[in-house]
Amino acid sequence: MAVTQLVGSKIHRREDPRLITGHGHYVDDFTRQGTAFAAFVRSPYAHARVKSIDITDASKAPGVVGVYTARDFKGLLAGTHPAAPAFVAEKKYVPERFPIAEKEVTYQGEIVAAVLAENKSQAADAANMIQVDYEDLPAVMDLEKALEKGSPKAHLDGPDNVCWDFTYTGPEITEAAFKEADVVVTQRVLQNRLAPVPMEPRGVIADYEGFDQKLTIWMSSQNPHFIRLFVSGALGLKESQVRVISPDVGGGFGSKISPYPEDYLVPALSKISERPVKWTETRSESIQNATHGRGQFYDCEVAAKKDGTLLGMRVVQYVDVGAYHGTFGAFQPVACLMAGGAYKWKGISARTIGVLTNRVPTDPYRGAGRPEATHLVERMVDLVALELKMDPVEIRRKNFIQPKDFPFTQNFGLVVDSGDYDKALDKALDLVGYKDLVKKQAELRKQGRYMGIGFSTWIELCGFGPSAATAPATGGIALVESAQVRVTPTGSVIVYTGTHSHGQGHETTFPQIVADQLGVPYESVELRHGDTAEGTAFGYGTYGSRSLAVGGVAISRATGKVIDKGKKLAAHMLEAAEEDVVFEHGSFHVKGSPDKAKAFGEVAFASYGMNLPEGMEQGLEAVAYFDPPNLVWPFGTHIAVVEIDAETGSPLLTKYVAVDDCGNIINPMIVDGQIHGGIVQAIAQALYEEVVYDDETGQLRTGTMIDYMLPSANEIPPILLDKTITPSPTNELGVKGIGEAGTIAASAAVINAICDALSPLGIKHVDMPATPDKLWKMMKEAGK
Amino acid sequence: MIPAAFEYARASSVEEASKLLSKFGEDAKVLAGGHSLIPLMRLRLAQPAALVDINGIKELDHIKEDGQKLRIGALTRHVTIHNSPVVKEKLPLLAEIASEVGDNQVRNMGTMGGVIAHADAAGDYPTLALILDAEIVTNKRTIPARDFFKDLFTTALGPDEVVTEVVFPVANGPHKYVKFRRRLFDWAIVGVAAQKMNGGWRIGLTNVGPTPVRAKAVEEALHQGAKPEEAAQHASDGLDPAGDLRASPEYKKHLARVLTKRAINQAEGRQ
Ligand SMILES: Cc1cc2nc3c(=O)[nH]c(=O)nc-3n(C[C@H](O)[C@H](O)[C@H](O)COP(=O)(O)OP(=O)(O)OC[C@H]3O[C@@H](n4cnc5c(N)ncnc54)[C@H](O)[C@@H]3O)c2cc1C
User: Is residue A289 less than 8 Å (CB to CB) from chain B?
Assistant: First the structure.
C-alpha cells in the first residue's frame, strides 16, 4: 500500500479558503439579539487628575441605555490587573490598576467612562458628549529622567518610577573577563516602541444571563483559558460559570495574550444592563491602546581579545513599562538572559530596570525579548569586529558554541538543546554569494556608493515551557499544554488543543500529525480550539512559539493513547495477544499475518459497541498533557544587503537571505510563511515603525496608519529562504518553534548592513528605525 | 471610528448640487471619491452637517481635448486619468502623476476635483496645475490655479461652489515627477514636477509649504543656462517648510534641491 506522508508536505492551509473568501468568523461578525453597544471615553491626556465627569447630556442622548463611570464598577469588579512575575521575581512597585480610572489618568487612552446605546453610532455620539474636567499633570516620558531623584511620578501616589530593578548577575562575574581584554567596546542600543497593529483589532461581546448566572464571552484572544481565569476571578464567578469563545483571530503578535480593561468592563456592563454587550475596537483605539512592544534601551560593554575571542559582556536593560505593569511585561527581561547569543562567553553581567512612564503599557510583541537580545549581541559583535578590523563572519565563527558542545549550559544556566551554527552560516553565505558581494562592495565604495552587508547569526529559546520554569513565572500555572483526541463511531477524529491559532495554520499542521499517526485520511481529522467549553480542562494559548513544540507534542501523545486503546480492542477482536498486534498505516494486524487485520475505523466503531474486552470502557478518546523537559532552541543566519542613497540617505534593501533551523518540519509552506512574516515585521522595526509620543505632553503622534509607518509588500525585497534541519532532542517530534524566528533575527541583519554601508564615513552605530532623514543627518554630520 | 451623524443627498446635475449646497448651508460638503473627506469624518476631524454626493453627475467624469487644452472633469478618477490615451499623449506628466497617487483603492475612487478642492499640501495635482497655469472651472467662474490655492486646505472656492473641470494646457515635451516617499502608497514627503514647455522649464514643488510652490528661481537659472545641478540649488530658495515625523525642515529643503536635479535630469533621459 502506498503511504502518503503528510508530515513534511506542503499542504495548503485548510483555513485559507474560508478566511480569504470572507467566510471566516471574527468576533465582530457575531451579534446577539438585544445587544447594547459600548463605547469608551478615553483620556486625551497622558497624565491628569480627573476632577469631575459630567454625564448629563450624554445620558439624555438618543438611544442611550446608560452611562457609567468608575463608581458603577466598584462593587462589581474586584482585584487589580494581573502582573506575572515572568523573568523578574522581585518587583519594587506595581501600581494598582482598576479597568476604569476614577481620580487619575496615567496614559493617553485610559478609560474614564463607558456608554451603552442601541447602536454603535449612538454610543459614539453620546461618548463625545461626556464632559470630563481634567487637571493636566506633568507626564513622565524619558526613562533616564524618570529615574532621577525628584522626577515627576507616573502615578501621583507611587514611591517613584521604578517598577523593578533586578540584577541577574553582578559586575563581579565579568571582572576577570574585562581585566583580560585587549579591547572594550561600549554602545547604547535603542529598541523603538512598536504598535502591534493586528489586521483584526480587538473585540469583546459579553452575554451575562442573570437567570442561570452564566457568562459567555466572545473575544479576539490568543489565550481564552487565561481570560476565563482572570475575568471570572474579577467578577466573582467560578471558572465553570464562564465560557470564553475566541473564534477566528486575525493576528495578535502578542497583543492578545494579556487581559485588557475592556475584557472586564464589557462583561460587567452586560451584568449591569442585563443585555448582551458588544464592543469592537477601532483602528485608532488599537494603535493607541493595544499593548505596545519593545520600548527599551540597553547600555552594553563587550570585552574581547585582539584575536576576536569574546570574553565578557555587561548589559543594563531599561524597559519602558508604560503606565502599568503589562500582565507579561516582565517577560522582556529575557533579553538579558539571551544577550550572549550564539557565542561562548566567560561572563555576562546583566541587570534590568523597569521604568514606569505615562505611555500605554508594554507587553510581549512577536519575539518578546529575544529580538532585543539578538539585536544587541549582533550589533556588539559587529562593533568588536569593526574595532579589530575583522571580518564579521570570522568573528562569529570564532566564538560560536560548537556542535560538540550541546547540550550547552549558557551563562545564565539555560541549557541550549542543539545546534550547528556554522552549517547555517555556510549555507547563507553561499545563498547570498558573499564573496562576490564583498568584491562588488569594494567597487561601489570606489564610486562613492554606500552598500552594506549585514549578518545576524541568531539563536532563540522558545516553546514555553517546562513546568519548573513556567509555574513560578506565571504565579502558579505551568505553561504546559493539553490535548484531547476523540474518535467518533464512524472513525472521524476531532482534535482539541489548548493552543489557539491567530494565523499560524494550526487547523492544517496539527491534523497532518494526527492523520499520519493514525493512518487515516487528512480530511477526516478536524482541529478545534478557542472555546473553553470544549476540549480539555485548561489550555495555555499561543505565544512564544510554543504551539507545535508543546501543544503539538501533547496532541501526538493523546493520539498515541488512542492507538494504545485501539490496540487492546483490536487484539480482542482478532483473538490475539496485545503484544502480537501491530499498528501500521491505519490498520491493526497480527504480527507476521498482515491479513488478520482490523482497520482503524472498524476498531473505532467496535469501541462504541458491546463486545469489549473485560473491564474496557466504551469510546475511543484520550487526553494528554505535555510538560516539556526543556525549551527548544532554533537558530539560523540571516544576511541583508542594503544600499543607501548617498544624496537622500534613503536605505534600500536589495537582497535578503535567511537560513533557519527549526528542527523537523511538519509543513514547509507554513514554516516559510511564518519566517516571511517575521522577517517583514523586523524589517519594519528596523526601517519604518515607531510609536512616537510627544516628549513633553505624552500625546501620541502616530495615531493613524498614515503616521504609524507599517510597510506594505512594495517595500519588502524578495526574501530567499533555505534551511538546515537539526532535530530538537527535547521532544519526540524533534520540532522547534518558528513563529517568532524571523522577527528575532532580521532587525540585526538590516541594521548591521546599514552600519556596514556607512562605515567608510566612520559611522559605527545606527538606531532603529533607520529613516532616510535620520541617515541623511548622520551622513552629513560624519562628512563634516 | 464612527463619523458624526450627517444629512445626505445625491445630486444628478451640477445645478442640483449647487442648490443642495445652498439649502444645507455653510456646513455642507461635496462628496466625490471620499478618500480624503471620509477619513477625516471617521476621525471626527470633519463633521459636515450634510454631504452632497456628486458621484451621480456623469458629465463631470470626462477627459476632453480642446485645441491646445485638455479638460479634465472634476469627477474623473485617478485611474481613468492614468489610463487615458489622450492624457498620455497630450500631457504625459499628468498620467504619470495619476499613476502614483496613493494605492489602487485610492486611484479607483479619488478624483481630480477632490484633490484640487481638498488642497492638501501633499496633493500632487495642485503642483502641476500651478506650474502649467491650469484653470479651475466651477459652476460659477473660472479661477487661475495661481489664485486658487490660498493656504493649507484652503482654496478660493465659495461654500456653494462646485469644481466642474480642471483645464490644463497641452504639454508633451520632456517631463518628470519625482515623488519621494517611504512607502509606495504614501503621500509625497517632497515631490518635484519638471515640465519643459515652449522652450522653458516649469518646476514645481509639492509639500514644502502650505500650498504648492513654483520654483521660479530654478526656472530662471535654467533659462540663464545653468546646469541642472546648479539650478537645482535654488529649489529651496525662500522655502520655510514645516517639519513633521517624516522629515525635518532642513531635510525637506535638501530633498527639494536633490529631487529637482533628478527631475530635470530624468526628464531629459539622464539618470
Ligand atoms: C492612503 C491614501 C493615500 C493617498 N495618497 C495621495 C497622494 O499620494 N497624492 C494625492 O494627491 N492624494 C492622495 N490621496 C488623496 C486622494 O487622492 C483623494 O482621493 C483626494 O485627495 C480627494 O479626492 P476625492 O475625490 O476622494 O475627494 P473627497 O474625499 O470626496 O473630497 C475631498 C474634499 O474636496 C471637496 N470636493 C470634492 N470634489 C469637489 C468638487 N468637485 N467641488 C468642490 N469640492 C469638492 C470635498 O467637499 C472635500 O472637502 C491619498 C488618499 C489616501 C486615503
Answer: no
How far is it, in rounded angstroms, from Cα A710 to Cα A43?
Answer: 25
Mean pLDDT of all residues belonging to chain B: 96
Per-residue pLDDT of B250-267, as tens digits, reads 999 999 999 999 999 999
Based on the structure, what is the number of domains in chain A? 3
Strand, helix or coil for residue A532: coil
Beta strands of A307-422 (E only): which ranges?
310-322, 347-356, 408-409, 415-416
Q: Nearest CA to A491 among A518, A466, A464?
A: A518
- Tens digit of each residue's pLDDT (9 = 90 or more) over A344-390: 999 999 999 999 999 999 999 999 999 999 999 999 999 999 999 99
> CB count, 10 Å around CB of B26?
9
Strands B135-138 and B142-144: antiparallel
**Residue B172, all three cell numbers:** 508633451
Q: Is the CB of B33 under 6 A from ligand 1?
A: yes
Which amino acid is it at A129? Answer: M
Q: Which three three-digit cell numbers place residue B80?
A: 481613468
The residues of chain A scoring below 50 in pLDDT are 1-2
Give CA–CA dist B104/A528, Å, rounded: 37
Question: What CATH number is attached to the domain comprising A51?
Answer: 3.90.1170.50
User: Which tens digits make up the pLDDT trace of A477-510?
Assistant: 999 999 999 999 999 999 999 999 999 999 999 9
Place of cell 517546562: A466
Query: Do the domain assignments include residue A189?
Result: no
Which neighbouring-strand residues pair with A350? A169, A315
Determine contact, residues B249/B240, Cβ cutoff 8 Å.
yes
- pLDDT given for residue A111 in this prediction: 98
CA distance A51 to A25: 42
- Is-above-0.80 flag for pTM? yes
Residues A458 and A407 in one domain: yes
Instruction: Give phi and psi for B163, each to the nearest 5.
Output: -70, 130
CA of B138 vs chain A CAs: smallest distance (Å): 31
d(CA A309, CA A759): 22
φ, ψ (nearest 5 deg) of residue A505: 85, 30
Closest CA to A382 of A370, A373, A369, A391: A391
Are the beta carbons of B187 and A706 separated by less than 8 Å? Answer: yes
Per-residue model confidence as pLDDT tens digits over B59-79: 999 999 999 999 999 999 999
Chain B neighbors of A771, CB-CB under 8 A: 182, 246
The residues, ordered by sequence, that sit 6+ positions from A735 with a Cβ below 8 Å of its Cβ are A548, A549, A552, A553, A632, A662, A663, A664, A665, A666, A727, A728
Q: What is the CATH number of domain B58-169?
A: 3.30.465.10
B53 C-alpha to ligand 1 centroid (Å): 13
Query: For residue B37, which phi and psi values (nearest 5 degrees)?
Result: -70, -45
> Are residues A382 and A528 both part of a single domain?
no
The C-alpha cell 560560536 sits at A400
